[in-house]
């Protein structure tokens, strides 16, 4: 089969017609190459004849009751290939003249049926069935447990009109009766019942049953949950409806092994992951997990520095988390999450060979509570965080002015998630705001970070994704030296300046990288300054003349990010995207600069069960990086093959 063409269609898209046919053209790898990885499509005249009937049925389902497939022409392209042409005569479309809903309960509002029938609109079979099901579901969601709807339509082909009637038999109102639970093995039933959204004696509603089912699935301990009412035969008067909850406990204990690589303008990294989790520790659905992530940075190999690794920089992290559900109340979870890690500080895209490599040993932990509402669409978490970081060096000597860092800050995080799919969002909204107050330890500050993302469907598989983010840091007692550090000619740093730079590494904002601005290396947008304890070579003559390779990212006080991406299918499972990202980080609190750092580009995604594997290439648009004459504090974002761009690879969408 070389190709299948459709002629004569004006109202129905060609793709919809071809989807109704079994006769298809040869599949092409990446939409280009025939016969590679995919078998050829074989022409079969009997299948083609049945396709003609399928196309006519599809037209009738769309309201074209007089549509006919008049002929199909077969053109020989070569000795072993043919091209098929399907000729369609659509005819007029039947329109809904009136909709009648007989015996609708008095006082009950009609549902707002999405994609249902409307007077004056085409009579489409799928909408007819959707409208019938929506009326029935609306009745059962409002207490009419035994409601039924009988739909009928009279089609007048002479005038291309349809008269539709929905005959309603609501039956008596009902309440919830007792609930039985089946399938439990280890999980205690009282913990399960605490998450029911329906209660005995309350008005019957299928919405409450659906919410119960989703709430139980969200617990993460069941591989399947079915919540069914036992309505039985319709009674003459109201009576309670019993409910059966059937669950299938999943694997309550899991071991996970994995790994990954990271290649950016800052570093090349190889890491492993080993995790263990018990979702029912000592009963009661308590959760305990351990997560070990060892890795090595192949220093100084980077995406813009293809050399043999000279020194491995070992790093790693150990996280553990314990969750106690139902405390202090039934739907609130209390958690404790200690951690330990070792990491290098890599902030330069072009370090000198003799530069020291600073690292930190991190002792951390958090204790807090979290709660979800509205089927996990709203989440609120309150926690107390503590971090104690000890500096050391992987290479070179450590500056004796570097001290230990102690951070202790409460944090409140509120999240609203209205996306249709967290892994592959196509429609909806996501908003999150984090508020921190560092009140004990080395520094004092308040930090607030709101993040909003919206997803607009432009077609069945085409999505416009938008993102806006702010970050506001107000320090007290530190950070005041940063604006003066930016652009000065000092060869050394005072103890106060070193302390500020240390704290800003942990508390300041950085931008750039796969999840921020894809035209820049990670952490390469924002204030840059000469930092002798990271880059002693910054005292050389060329640095004093403003060489940006001598500067190190310092972190800043004010962040803004804006991004837009258009995501579209190419050829299953390959997806494409085009995007534009902009971001800046200012060195002073509540300051917004005319430095958009705009980058645009495109990328490819391969859809997998764990989310899309993506590769994005971002190009920095000339003239739209810094809109002021002064470029003081701009660092060296690095290049790729000598061009002002960056490549990022990861799993999941950028936002």
Describe the protein in words.
By secondary structure, the chain is mainly beta. The chain has four domains: 3-89, membrane protein fhac (Ubiquitin-like (UB roll), Roll); 95-169, membrane protein fhac (Ubiquitin-like (UB roll), Roll); 175-249, Ubiquitin-like (UB roll); 253-651, membrane protein fhac: a member of the omp85/tpsb transporter family (Porin). It contains eight helices and 30 strands. The strands form six sheets. The protein has a 17-stranded antiparallel sheet that branches. The protein has a three-stranded mixed sheet with strand order 1-5-4. A hairpin with a 5-residue loop joins strand 22 (444-457) and strand 23. The two termini are 40 Å apart.
SSE order and pairing:
Layout: E1 3-7, H1 14-19, E2 28-29, E3 33-34, H2 45-61, E4 68-78, E5 81-89, E6 95-102, H3 125-141, E7 148-156, E8 161-169, E9 175-182, H4 189-193, H5 206-217, E10 222-230, E11 240-249, E12 253-263, E13 268-281, E14 286-299, E15 311-325, E16 332-344, E17 357-373, E18 378-395, E19 405-417, E20 428-438, E21 440-441, E22 444-457, E23 463-476, H6 482-485, H7 495-507, E24 528-529, H8 541-544, E25 552-553, E26 558-571, E27 574-586, E28 599-606, E29 613-620, E30 645-651
Strands, total number: 30
Assign the structural class, choosing from mainly alpha, mainly beta, alpha/beta, alpha+beta, or little secondary structure. Answer: mainly beta
Reported for the largest beta sheet, the result is:
17 strands, antiparallel
- The average pLDDT is 90
Strand content: 35-45%
What distance lies between the first and last C-alpha atoms, to the nearest angstrom? Answer: 40 Å
For this structure, the quaternary state is single chain
Shape: globular
């Amino acid at each position: 089969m070389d190709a299948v063409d459709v002629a004569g269609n004006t109202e129905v898209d060609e793709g919809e017609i071809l989807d109704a046919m079994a006769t298809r053209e040869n599949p092409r790898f990446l939409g280009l190459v025939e016969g590679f990885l995919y078998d050829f499509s074989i022409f079969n005249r009997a299948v083609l004849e049945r396709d003609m009937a399928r196309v006519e049925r599809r037209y009738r389902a769309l309201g074209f009751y007089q549509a006919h497939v008049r002929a199909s022409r077969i053109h020989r392209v070569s000795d072993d290939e043919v091209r098929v042409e399907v000729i369609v005569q659509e005819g007029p479309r039947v329109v809904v003249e009136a909709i009648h809903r007989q015996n609708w309960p008095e006082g009950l509002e009609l549902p707002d049926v999405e994609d249902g029938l409307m007077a004056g609109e085409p009579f489409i079979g799928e909408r007819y069935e959707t409208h019938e099901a929506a009326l029935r579901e609306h009745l059962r969601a409002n207490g009419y447990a035994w409601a039924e709807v009988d739909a009928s339509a009279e089609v007048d082909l002479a005038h291309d009109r349809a008269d539709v009637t929905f005959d309603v038999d609501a039956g008596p109102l009902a309440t919830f009766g007792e609930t039985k639970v089946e399938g439990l093995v280890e999980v205690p039933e009282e913990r399960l019942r605490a998450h029911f959204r329906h209660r005995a004696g309350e008005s019957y509603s299928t919405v409450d049953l659906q919410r119960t089912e989703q709430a139980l699935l969200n617990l993460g301990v069941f591989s399947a949950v079915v919540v069914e009412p036992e309505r039985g035969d319709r009674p003459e008067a109201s009576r309670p409806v019993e409910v059966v909850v059937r669950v299938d406990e999943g694997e309550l204990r899991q071991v996970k092994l994995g790994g990954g690589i990271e290649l950016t303008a800052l570093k090349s990294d190889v890491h492993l992951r080993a995790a263990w989790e018990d979702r029912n520790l000592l009963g009661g659905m308590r959760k305990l997990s351990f997560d070990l992530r060892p890795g090595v940075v192949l220093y100084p190999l980077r995406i813009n520095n293809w050399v043999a690794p000279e020194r491995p920089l070992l790093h790693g992290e150990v996280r553990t988390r314990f969750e106690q559900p139902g405390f202090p109340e039934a739907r609130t979870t209390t958690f404790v999450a200690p951690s330990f890690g070792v990491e290098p500080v890599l902030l330069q895209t072009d370090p000198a060979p003799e530069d020291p490599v600073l690292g930190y040993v991190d002792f951390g932990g958090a204790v807090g509570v979290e709660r979800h509402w509205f089927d996990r669409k709203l989440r609120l978490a309150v926690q107390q965080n503590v971090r104690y970081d000890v500096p050391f060096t992987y290479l070179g000597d450590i500056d004796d002015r570097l001290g230990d860092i102690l951070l202790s800050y409460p944090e409140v995080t509120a999240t609203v998630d209205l996306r249709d799919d967290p892994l592959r969002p196509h429609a909806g909204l996501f908003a999150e705001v984090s508020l921190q107050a560092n009140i004990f330890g080395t520094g004092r500050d308040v930090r607030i970070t709101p993040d909003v993302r919206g997803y607009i469907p432009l077609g069945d598989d085409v999505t416009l994704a938008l993102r806006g983010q702010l970050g506001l840091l107000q320090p007290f007692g530190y950070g005041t030296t940063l604006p003066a550090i930016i652009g000065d000619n000092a060869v050394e740093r005072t103890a106060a300046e070193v302390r500020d730079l240390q704290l800003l590494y942990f508390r300041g904002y950085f931008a750039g990288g796969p999840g921020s601005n894809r035209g820049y290396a990670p952490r390469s947008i924002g204030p840059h300054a000469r930092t002798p304890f990271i880059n002693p070579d910054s005292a050389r003559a060329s640095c004093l003349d403003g060489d940006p390779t001598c500067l190190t990212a310092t972190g800043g006080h004010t962040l803004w990010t804006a991004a837009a991406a258009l995501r579209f299918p190419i050829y299953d499972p390959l997806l494409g995207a085009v995007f534009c990202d902009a971001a800046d980080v200012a060195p002073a609190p509540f300051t917004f600069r005319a430095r958009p750092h705009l980058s645009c580009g495109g990328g490819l995604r391969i859809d997998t069960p764990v989310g899309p594997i993506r590769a994005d290439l971002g190009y920095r648009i000339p003239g739209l990086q810094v809109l002021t004459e002064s470029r003081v504090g701009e660092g060296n974002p690095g290049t790729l093959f000598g061009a002002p761009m960056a490549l990022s690879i990861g799993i999941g969408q950028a936002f």
